[in-house]
Specification:
By secondary structure, the chain is mainly beta. It contains no helices and 11 strands. Strands 2, 4, 5, 6, 9, 10 and 11 form a 7-stranded mixed sheet that branches. Strands 1-3-8-7 form a 4-stranded antiparallel sheet, with no helix packed on it.
Length: about 120
């Protein structure tokens, strides 16, 4: 079993930055891919970014390219999402997820952390 815990959310003004963290734990943690998703009120959950756990290859939604950076620290079993130039459309609950069976097919999810961007 894998547990994922997000942190780092909060309230920020438009143009500001936040850094989210996702700490993974479990008896043996070995992800193939880890990703960030977000869900705004009344909207479907959407993909934000993902990282290949071994190679470090990164993937981004068009809406966040150039503003968000995903990274990971394998030794700490922790993934990060640096979010810059935030705008109100980025307001959502952000979830981290881990794919341990197939790439980009997520088996485990965190509880989410709220990000609110004020205009």
């Amino acid at each position: 079993q894998v547990q994922l815990v997000e942190s780092g959310g909060g309230l920020v003004q438009a143009g500001g930055s936040l850094r989210l963290s996702c700490a993974a734990s479990g008896r043996t943690f070995s992800a193939i891919t880890m990703g960030w998703f977000r869900q705004a009120p009344g909207k479907e959950r959407q993909f934000v970014a993902a990282v290949s756990w071994s190679r470090g290859s990164t993937y981004y939604a068009d809406s966040v390219k150039g503003r968000f950076t995903i990274s990971r620290d394998n030794a700490k079993n922790t993934m990060y999402l640096q979010m810059n130039s935030l705008n109100p459309e980025d307001t959502a609950v952000y979830y981290c997820a881990a794919a341990v069976t197939r790439p980009h097919e997520y088996d485990y999810w965190g509880q989410g952390t709220q990000v609110t961007v004020s205009s």
